[in-house]
Amino acid sequence: MADESEPGSPAELAKALESTGYLADDGTATAAYLALRMTRPLFCEGEPGTGKTALAKALAEVLGAELIRLQCYEGIDASQALYDWDFPRQLLHLRVVEATASAARETLDAEAVGASLYHPRFLIARPVLRALRTSPSVLLVDEVDRADDEFEAFLLEVLTEHAVTIPEIGEVRAVRPPLVVLTSNRTREVHDALKRRCLYLWLDHPDVARETAILRVRLPGLSARLAGQVASAVAKMRRLELLKPPGVAESLDWARALRLLGADVLSVEAAAASLGALLKYREDADRVRATLDTVLA
Predict the structure, then answer these.
(1) In the chain, which residues have pLDDT < 70?
(2) Which segments of the chain does DSSP mark as H helices, in order?
């Protein structure tokens, strides 16, 4: 989906992403830039909370494109990603046609009725079809590792052809292929065939300096001191082998909660009172509370 309005280098893209509040490192900016220029899907893998979904949202904002999200889950199939027919409206239409023909004492033309039933106005476009028909667009295929092998095969075909065939209507081909961002939390290995079709990007948790910068960009008015203390404490927590290490979104929530509580420094008391904004399992909260002095040191 490259055009003259897009950033002309990874550095330009990084600057544009920063304007949306997303601070990309050199590797992330380069991978996203190449995905744009090469019209290749970007496969983002990493722990939950490392900014994979946020990257797709930021890219859509930079490109002035519609963000279309396909949330994957166990058991999802092609019809739930592609299209469906509005059966109630089709049934209502059929009854109207039958009533009209009866009033006019005419015989229904089965072929004509069938064609009218499968008119595009009765088509419900799911995320993949919407992305192919929308220009420009960013298609976010979120948590693709939750889907099964058959769904991966379907995605591979669509990503290769940038087109789908609807038997009753015909082929729908993207005039301008969407930028596709696939994310995976690595709950299982995604097949090599799908990965080969994509550019690969591993996203890790940001270091303390970058997370401090993210907190200050996303929360205007947050002091450098409190942002640095939050980022440092969260980095130490991620090394505690928690059930659910906090991501950047949780760091933002924690900093926001601390500020609402009137804290200008991260004290043991303020941290203990606000841990519910950061940690989502009792076991994790108990472990952190038992080591707060070390974590905040």
Answers:
(1) 1-5, 97-98, 101-116
(2) 10-19, 26-38, 52-63, 78-81, 87-103, 110-117, 127-133, 149-161, 192-196, 208-218, 224-237, 248-260, 268-274, 282-290, 292-295
